[in-house]
TrEMBL record:
Residues 98-296 form the ABC transmembrane type-1 domain. It holds the Pfam family BPD_transp_1. The chain crosses the membrane at residues 9-29, 100-125, 137-165, 177-195, 232-253, 277-303. InterPro entries: BPD_transp_1_N, MetI-like, MetI-like_sf. It is a multi-pass membrane protein. It comes from Thermalbibacter longus. PANTHER family: INNER MEMBRANE ABC TRANSPORTER, OLIGOPEPTIDE TRANSPORT SYSTEM PERMEASE PROTEIN OPPB. GO terms for biological process: transmembrane transport. This is ABC transporter permease. It comes from the Bacteria. Belongs to the binding-protein-dependent transport system permease family. Its main location: membrane. It is found in: Cell membrane.
């Protein structure tokens, strides 16, 4: 187990190098320059100012040299200075905003697991019944409804019409966490419910389930001991990419609820072509995704003892 985990962790290094190279090439191949303002009515920088900024950020060097310098710097966890916030380092922005996005994503993921998996189990046990149709309808809404539309709906419902939540916006108290968590969790709830239902329906058709029922086990024992354990593999598979996606920032939810997370900084960096910020966020997402996939592979052996890591 330890050797397997160590090998997988070492594989993250070449993976991140490949991600950084692809991102670097795409960024510089995109038309436009980070030295020229793109906001409406922005005053264009004179050529002398652009040359000075290019020398300051190293953009006057050949692309291959810029990339090698960047690799050398990130080895020391130096992601450079933000082009948009020219007095702030990228690592300081990430250090301040990433824990907030991770906190929001973890709460949304917990809600998705606690609600989505039981919904899928309930739908599978009552296949083609009224409960199945209700659960499937809820799951379909979760998958198809964008989180920013849901966020606006939650604000109107719980702040204006039924004022359970006294205010919206910010991240200063637990009451501020409720609506962003609900808005961000509905999509993962629907996805987990659908995966769980499909997987459990397939397992319930297997021969060993009929054998367990023939031995006199109750429906609850069959579901808990046999169906659920074998049916959790597909839902667990998507937990890693799903948590990596919502744990590294949700731009729309964070913008609507004024959550000081990393998502809105990433969107702003794309608009302003803030190369250091774009590279840092994408590398962080790649590393987070690789670690989460490793944890998922380890969970396989915990859920199903027949799976061995080798």
């Amino acid at each position: 187990m330890a050797q397997y985990i160590a090998r997988r962790l070492l594989m993250i290094i070449p993976t991140l190098i490949a991600i950084s190279l692809i991102t670097f090439v795409i960024m510089h191949a995109t038309p436009g320059s980070p030295l020229q303002p793109t906001a409406p009515n922005a005053n264009p920088l004179p050529p002398a100012a652009q040359q000075a900024l290019a020398r300051r950020f190293g953009l006057d060097k050949p692309l291959w040299q810029q990339y090698l310098v960047y690799l050398k710097n990130i080895w020391n966890l130096d992601f450079g200075i933000s082009y948009q916030y020219r007095t702030r380092e990228v690592k300081d922005i990430i250090y301040r905003t990433f824990p907030i996005s991770l906190h929001l994503g973890a709460m949304a993921m917990a809600v998705a697991i606690l609600v989505g998996i039981p919904l899928g189990v309930l739908a599978a046990v009552n296949q083609n019944g009224p409960i199945d149709y209700v659960c499937s309808l809820f799951a379909t809404l979760g998958v198809s409804l964008p989180n920013f539309i849901l966020a606006l709906f939650l604000i109107v419902l719980f702040v204006r019409l039924v004022p359970i939540i006294p205010r919206t916006g910010g991240w200063s108290s637990p009451i501020d966490w409720v609506l962003p968590t609900l808005a961000l969790s509905l999509g993962p709830v629907g996805i987990l419910a659908r995966y769980t239902r499909a997987s459990m329906v397939e397992v319930m058709r297997q021969d060993f389930i009929r054998t367990a029922q023939a031995k006199g086990l109750s429906d609850v024992q069959v579901v808990l001991r046999h169906v659920l354990k074998n049916g959790l593999i597909p839902p667990i598979t998507i937990l890693g990419p799903m948590f990596a996606a919502i744990g590294t920032g949700s731009p729309f939810v964070e913008k609507i609820f004024r959550v000081p997370g990393m998502g809105r900084f990433f969107v702003d960096s794309l608009i302003t072509r803030d190369y250091p910020m774009i590279m840092a966020v994408i590398l962080l997402y790649g590393a987070f995704l690789a670690v989460m996939n490793l944890l998922v592979d380890v969970l396989y052996g915990v859920v199903d003892p027949r799976i061995r890591l080798s």
